[in-house]
Design a protein that fits this description.
Layout lengths: L2 H14 L5 H8 L1 H12 L3 E5 L2 E6 L1 H4 L1 H18 L3 H21 L4 E4 L2 E6 L7 H19 L3 H13 L1 H4 L4 H9 L3 H30 L1
Amino acid sequence: MYAINHAATALLIKKKFPKQKMVFLLIAVQAVEILWVLFNYLGIEHFSVIKGTIHLDYLPWSHSIFTGIILSLAAWLILSKGFKQNVLAIAISAGIISHIILDLLMHEPDIALVPFISDISFGLNIQSIPLLTIIIETAYGVFCWWYFKGTKSLLATIIILNLINIPFIFNLSPQAIETIQKANYLLPTIILIQILYTWYFVWKFSKDKKLETANS
């Protein structure tokens, strides 16, 4: 699942836990992806390009089911037991594990059960059907907006940022593929930039909801 729709998941959590700061929820839902970016920069994880298609074929340390559970549990223990923030602990834990759950639906079978066993991996591979992918991704983002009861600006952000992903959902141009193959750092940098601007816009326009409510 692409950055905007992971970020949209924070809207669901914010609706359930309205007193928790959106910035923390946005970080939580993308914590796994931040690890992926870091591990790609360090050469611990990697991707491949086959016949014009990008495959995230080695991401067991950031995206395994085991990693998601451990990170979620660790966040809960630290926040709940260490800082006595029980509600925040549940919200952050839910955000972290949501990333793995959503990626299990969209990814090809590259989500490992545990990092050190590569033979057992999962993924429904919805991403292999581009048109279905863009429909599901956009519909999910819009659902999160509807559940949150967000502003029109937030809805426009979700739709536009989903449309921006179309070149990645369908095969990239040969020139783009060649560039990504020559510079291994480029794809994780693009993903990092996507994470940052989705954080900003979702945070900004979810705050606008309070202003509109106050003025109504």
